[in-house]
Amino acid sequence: MAGGTLYTYPDNWRAYKPLIAAQYSGFPIKVASSPPEFQFGVTNKTSEFLKKFPLGKVPAFEGNDGFCLFESSAIAHYVGNDELRGTNRLHQAQVIQWVSFSDSHIVPPASAWVFPTLGIMQYNKQATEQAKEEIKAVLGVLDSHLKTRTFLVGERVTLADIAVTCSLLWLYKQVLEPSFRQPFGNVTRWFVTCVNQPEFRAVLGEVKLCDKMAQFDAKKFAEMQPKKETPKKEKPAKEPKKEKEEKKKATPAPAPAPAPEDDMDESEKALAAEPKSKDPYAHLPKSSFVMDEFKRKYSNEDTLAVALPYFWEHFDKEGWSIWYAEYKFPEELTQTFMSCNLITGMFQRLDKLRKTGFASVILFGTNNDSSISGVWVFRGQDLAFTLSEDWQIDYESYTWRKLDSNSEECKTLVKEYFCWEGDFKHVGKAFNQGKIFK
Amino acid sequence: MAVKELVALEKCLGLNSGKYSSRAQGAGKIPVLQTNKGPSLVGLSTIASHLVKEAKKEELLGSTAEEKAIVQQWLEYRISYIDRASSKEDIRNVLNDLNHYLKDKVFVAGNTVTLADILIYYGLHPVITGLSVQEKETYINVSRWFSHIQNYPGIRQHLPSLVFIKNRIYASNH
């Protein structure tokens, strides 16, 4: 047999397909996933590599005889054997059917759901919910097919099982908790059997099914975004940044959502770019109130003596609105440090809102007896959260009340919350600590 | 019957045929194997386990301690329930047991074929032969398992291949 080399980054689920197929066929395949043979993001950008594989993507296969091939399922087909490819025309066609099915119907929703839980993609509630529904539909199809069958095609493992198993791998590892997979017992039976075949195990190791559905990991996501500036250092860099943004607006906007076929490199690139290039406030008339100027005063000068008078003097009630927000589930708040994480987590997820928003959110009370409330200032007259899907994660946990900026109540609330001092009569608990969103 | 089955197993394992006889016990007969090296062995599961070891295919007896125990459990089940099923009701009970047990399993024990799959397949073959299409669909997990095992290389031997319809026609019961 010819033998060959498979270029990939380590632990690439797409590369598992050819590697499992090679386990079945005995095709000698060498994995190049680390320097000096292959360095992801470097080797695959070289002209030498691009000459062989014009997409510059991995996994990519190069035979010892010089034969080059990209696309993981095609490589799996090549390095596999006749039994894996299907022993008659009918089976061969069915194998292609399931391989295509996994690429078109499983991989896109699986990526949309799983990537945020791994911190490699921003969480989007609607996209995740939609992906869950699509996955349910797909598992339903597989479940009724597998009710009468042991494997997807014929009575033996084929490339169909390899491809579909690999595309379900992250789902089963990360998010398909027992209650979610319960209605799809036939799929789980088949999946567990596949991953425990010696040929699969040799490549995948032990596959542990998920105990509890993983959720979006904001911290991990932030860590994986090296290009992101920390918001506090933003001020001096303000001008050049704006310029950059305007330049970007002028050029045709790239598709913001990472295409499912993209490898990690591509999705990261797409994510590093500002996801919303559109200004959600473009329709509003220019306002006389300059948020940055207020924030500068608030940060650097005495709140009561300088920042507050500045705020009321310049506040533009046509262009901006003030809101009072109260956390809906105070009885669920236990340790105060956890409650603080809840607040800062929300701020982190609202990062893109910083330019046009300001808030002071305060935790009142003590462990197991606390409440959270705050005063928010937004551009426009509506709650800002509905403007971007990325902002909709937390706000439903709060009740929002718009304040009349002329009312005494509003003046008091603004004063107390901005200064972190006062009676806070409406709360009934002592001030514990405050957080500022700016 | 049991002797024929052991001969099939020998072929499946790639062994030469041994010397068999039958001994009457109670209402039925039990197989006896005269080994070359010494004593004769009596009983289906004893002889079958011996043949597997002779062929150096011990993985067919299970890989972990638990799997080995489960293989033995189902060999015992084969003798005590499948072989002794005499009435229609007995058969129904066996099929219900297995149908329930196989719901979340592809193989009787562990994740690969074992002697338990082979001997239950042999023992169940006359039973499944007598089922209608509709009954096969009722015991859908048994049918799926049976169809898989009869297609597993080397196991079926002289037994006729039975037909299973993969697209259900009667049931909407999931």
Concise structural overview:
Chain A: It comes from Xenopus tropicalis (Western clawed frog). The complex is a heterodimer of chains A (438) and B (174). By secondary structure, chain A is α+β, with helices and mostly antiparallel strands.
Could you explain how this protein is built, in words?
Chain A: Residues 277-438 form the EF-1-gamma C-terminal domain. Chain A: One of its GO terms (molecular function) is translation elongation factor activity. Chain A: Residues 88-221 form the GST C-terminal domain. The complex is a heterodimer of chains A (438) and B (174). With 438 residues, chain A is of the alpha+beta class. Chain A has helices at residues 13-25, 47-52, 72-79, 82-85, 89-117, 125-146, 159-175, 178-181, 185-195, 198-204, 218-223, 234-250, 264-272, 291-300, 303-314, 336-349, 408-419, and strands spanning 4-7, 29-32, 60-63, 68-70, 320-327, 357-366, 369-379, 398-403, 431-437. Chain A has a five-stranded antiparallel sheet with strand order 8-5-7-6-9, sandwiched between helices. In chain A, helix 5 (89-117) packs parallel to helix 7. The longest helix of chain A has 29 residues, at 89-117. Mean pLDDT of chain A is 84; it is low at 228-277. Chain B has 174 residues and is mainly α. Chain B has one domain (2-150): Glutathione S-transferase Yfyf (Class Pi), Chain A, domain 2 (Up-down Bundle), CATH 1.20.1050.10. In chain B, a hairpin with a 2-residue loop joins strand 1 and strand 2. In chain B, helix 1 (2-13) runs parallel beside helix 2 (44-54), helix 3 runs parallel beside helix 5 and helix 5 packs across helix 7 (140-150). The mean pLDDT of chain B is 92. The A-B interface holds A 144, 147-151, 154-156, 185, 188-190, 192-193, 196-198 and B 103-107, 110-112, 140, 143-145, 147-148, 151-152, 164-168, 174.
